[in-house]
Amino acid sequence: MLAKRIIPCLDVDNGRVKKGINFVNLVDIGDPAAIAAEYERQGADELVFLDITATNQKRQTMKEVVESVSRRVFMPLTVGGGIKSVAQMQLLLKAGADKISLNTAAVVEPQLITKGAQKFGRQCIVVAIDVKKNSATGQYMVFTSGGQHGTGLDALDWAEQAVSLGAGELLVTSMDKDGTKSGFDTELYRELTERVDVPIIASGGAGKLNDFTAVFCKGKVDGALAASVFHYGELTISGVKDTLKKAGVNVR
Amino acid sequence: MLTIIDYDAGNTYNVKKAFDFLGVKTRLTADPAEILASRGLILPGVGAFAPAMQTLRTRGLDTVIKKAVMQKTPLLGICLGMQLLFESSSEYGEHKGLGLIPGKVIALPRKKGYKVPQMGWNENELIQKNSVFSFVAQQYTYFVHSFYADCDNKYIVSRVDYSVPVPAIVQNKNVYGLQFHPEKSGNVGIKILQTFVKEIIYNDNSGN
């Protein structure tokens, strides 16, 4: 049986991991390869690197990050953040990435999903969707540009469209839950997993061990992503997996 | 020398990095003489069956690979490279493969609860207890594929449970194949590559 995946997410700015990371046993705390190796040791199933570099000029360094991580860490690597062309995808895949995550660019130019899927296979193309619930209507809406821009798109419709265009996986972040540590939006994921049949990765809201059990059991997702709870050592990946095992969720 | 057969396959560099990590020297080449003089061969691969087979043929590599196998050179196919070892594939029409392992590559059946492609970590069930790869028992390896090798049990070293039982490691004499990506399967994957080099290439424990 396929194992459910636990995925730490790292923000990379100009080649260095940003946002505090508190691993006591690491000498160089900002080095993506060192942090990736530590997560591999803890039992991470996959890593997501998000390039938060503001300028295009510095984006070349992301290729070097992927290159150095893939020399040391042997697990699937997803790279996202500001990727706008097939050429940029190719550069990162050749450097060692396994999947490319598209967010704003996919909404601006949906054909980019198809172009990427045709060239590299749909398993390479992840569409990341940032979702906010409209409190008046209860509708899940899509936001882009780091959550600043409301697109007016219905999140479930967009998810379905992204898959029909060639997305092989969806990474869906609940903006309402992100940073709250109050648990994943299991209702959102339950609705999503009923609508599309590609793997869904849940993101936003991880705070305690049982949040992971809930999102797998009730949300029916394939993977769960978290950043700060792992970075600060509030939760360990092995601790999360032990809890999941006890709840009967299949993990590696 | 260990040769990685160069036909522009997508995972070539990551496979090479895994051997670099192990301190195993590899040569990336499409040169027939170099391939035939190698102690061991790696056939990587990602993507669709037909274009990959076409590239091998255009470069004359299909004949070279078969000749090397007849000389008893150990060969390891990875992912699509594993599927190419079989007689045929039904991915987008019927296509002939290298025919080094009896069997056909067919689509993973659609079944409720099983997404296609199979993407993620799955647990190996060991079939051949005496294999040099017996340490994969109950170990998870990383899969990304929509087609699988339908072959006789005698060629299956280990398999994983999906919509059907999926052969994970296959072997026919000196020809080996991995449906998963060892270069993305953590310590177990690295150990599989190391074992191929140490136990199969340099101990001539190739089942001949």
From TrEMBL, chain B:
Compartments in which it is found: Cytoplasm
Catalytic activity field: L-glutamine + H2O = L-glutamate + NH4(+); 5-[(5-phospho-1-deoxy-D-ribulos-1-ylimino)methylamino]-1-(5-phospho-beta-D-ribosyl)imidazole-4-carboxamide + L-glutamine = D-erythro-1-(imidazol-4-yl)glycerol 3-phosphate + 5-amino-1-(5-phospho-beta-D-ribosyl)imidazole-4-carboxamide + L-glutamate + H(+)
Organism phylogeny: Bacteria, Bacillati, Bacillota, Bacilli, Lactobacillales
Residues of the Glutamine amidotransferase domain: 4-198
Gene source species: Liquorilactobacillus oeni DSM 19972
A GO biological process held by the record: L-histidine biosynthetic process
EC number: 4.3.2.10, 3.5.1.2
GO cellular component: cytoplasm
Xref: CDD domains: GATase1_IGP_Synthase
Subunit composition and interactions: Heterodimer of HisH and HisF.
Role noted for this protein: IGPS catalyzes the conversion of PRFAR and glutamine to IGP, AICAR and glutamate. The HisH subunit catalyzes the hydrolysis of glutamine to glutamate and ammonia as part of the synthesis of IGP and AICAR. The resulting ammonia molecule is channeled to the active site of HisF.
Catalytic site: 79, 181, 183
GO molecular function: glutaminase activity; imidazoleglycerol-phosphate synthase activity; lyase activity
Pathway per the UniProt entry: Amino-acid biosynthesis; L-histidine biosynthesis; L-histidine from 5-phospho-alpha-D-ribose 1-diphosphate: step 5/9
Annotated keywords: Amino-acid biosynthesis, Cytoplasm, Glutamine amidotransferase, Histidine biosynthesis, Hydrolase, Lyase
Protein name as annotated: Imidazole glycerol phosphate synthase subunit HisH
Domain of life: Bacteria
